[in-house]
Specification:
Elements (H helix, E strand, L loop, with lengths): L11 E5 L3 H5 L5 E5 L19 H13 L8 H22 L2 H14 L4 H13 L3 H14 L4 H13 L3 H14 L4 H9 L3 E4 L9 E4 H14 L4 H12 L5 H14 L4 H13 L3 H14 L4 H13 L3 H14 L4 H9 L6 H12 L11 H13 L3 H14 L4 H13 L3 H13 L5 H13 L3 H14 L4 H14 L4 E2 L18 E5 L2 E7 L7 E7 L8 E7 L9 E8 L12 E7 L5 E7 L2 E2 L2 E4 L12
Helix pairs in contact: 2-3, 3-4, 4-5, 5-6, 6-7, 7-8, 8-9, 11-12, 12-13, 13-14, 13-15, 14-15, 15-16, 16-17, 18-19, 19-20, 20-21, 21-22, 21-23, 22-23, 23-24, 24-25
Amino acid sequence: MSKFNPDPSKPWRWIESDHWDLSFEGLPRRIPWFTEDPDPPLKSYGNANNDFPILRLYEAVETMLASEPSPPPDPRFAEFVARIDLGDDLVSAMESGDFIAAAGVLREMHRVSRPTGAMLMNEAYLAKRNGDEEGARELYRRATELCPEVEMLWRHYGEECEAAGLKDEAIRAYEQAVRILPNHQQAILGLHRLGERVRLETADEPGKVRFLTKVELRAFTEEEMEKHWADTFELRGIAHNASQVPCTHDLALRCMERVVELEPDDLENQRNLGALLRVAGRIGEAREHLERARELDPADASTYFHLAECAIDENDMKEAWHNLHEALDCNENHKPALTCVFLNRTDQTPEKNEADLLAYSLPQPEKHYPGSWQGHLLLANAAWKRDQRENAVRLAADAYKIAPEESEVFLTYTGMLAATGENEWVAALTKPRLRQGEDNPVAFMNFALALEAMGLRQEAIRVLREAVDSLDLTLEQRHAMVDRLDIWTGHFATCEIEIETQDGAGECLRRSIFQVKEGKAGLKIFDTGMGVGQHREIPVSFSSPKTEIDLHLEHRNFDGDPEQTSLGTFTVREIDPAQVEEQPVRLTFHLSDSAELGLAALQGQRKLPVSWGFAGPARHEPSEL
């Protein structure tokens, strides 16, 4: 049954669009559109607001069909109308969790229509709900064949293949998503997880992160090598980075061979070249350089450890065991050697392994043995993973008694204290450390969080600002600190009403999130079924100057949805009305990985105060988003 009474005399026209929603809904590119309406988005991607008004298209199609055009229209239009007419029943069944009814609606859709990407995606979701992962994967595969230009389907298919361990097919799917959307964050991260993209952050572009293909990474590495071929410091750094990725391991080896050629009497150079040669399977050559490193410094624990690795590769366990103990004689805190000697043993139980490591790690004053703080940390982390928090904190405290000056000990101990709510202890231990010149960003963040938890927010803000201004931070560290500062200074607000996700699983939205004006749905900010971990930037325009605006949000699926749920009102303040033309206002909505909805706002480059409240509807609404 039609959702409205079409007027056959209402003027309409044919337009063409390659928007992905048309393919997704099984429609041709040439579609009817009301003459009085402005063109909908004509391209799939790249527009600031590329939501396709699918219900308006439904009305236009109904009008076109009622006018009985000649020649007869493409039968896909009648199928589209039939599917939309069943859509409310599908949405209602999905929202109520009646997946049997939802499956029945989809069967009816198949009766009145050929399959579409949208239908197959919904069927895939139901298959996953029923534990049929293989069936869901096959449905997504069929959907990508029907709609090869819909990145969302490729991403879902890639995620299903990745979860099933089908690496090559997952890579192919993610690459297709990136082909459609070159900056597709989720697909690029998927390729990164699968080793097809490499994360790169360079010193000459601080704060900028790129994800390179293997070909791009090799070209970049070779260019850097050529540029710094006479600089051993730079070459060591290039070798270290290249050694982390299998596709550039040969370049790392070439770099270290050049470094040893320039500085043959450096212990670290000889040792690192030996380690790289071992990984490359050139054991004999590896031994030569490691033996040279041992001659340069007979007390270097890492040299003995790498010699032990060579012995293990040659299945000479007697020599391996000897070298591992030599490594611990040189340094009782050598983590890889401790792990091999104690925790990785398979000839006794894990409990016995940990008991032996604890016995080794305890101080023995009568023998002038200080104990192994690293051994205590290994045991503390193992206990923490088993959720034995009290025991983990005690072991970390014992490590701190042995070596309070060690950064790893300090950060592990205070991090565990913070996680267990001992904020006063964290502050007491960290404050003098910072005064003495501690420059680890984690220490600053832990101290600031402890201060804020103790009600000292302004002091916490001062600490984080000092860290942002003075420390050498990675992009993630800078973002974490700036985001926390925005929250504490009122430049980021979070909705305190729980966002609806499918079955409470927190993976994707159960209903769309709309901005609501005068009780009617306006801009759709996030769509039903969209995965979490999203953000959207939206420009604001004004019909009259305002210093503040209210944005009332609701969960709903369409205008007039009787079951809409208020998500409260975000308020943006301190807008300069005189500058809105030269410095436009931009809103950024965040849907976090934990399904929390937040908002930040800028006018030009100036951050605007943002708050959230239960109150609604809005008092001062923007003219248009």
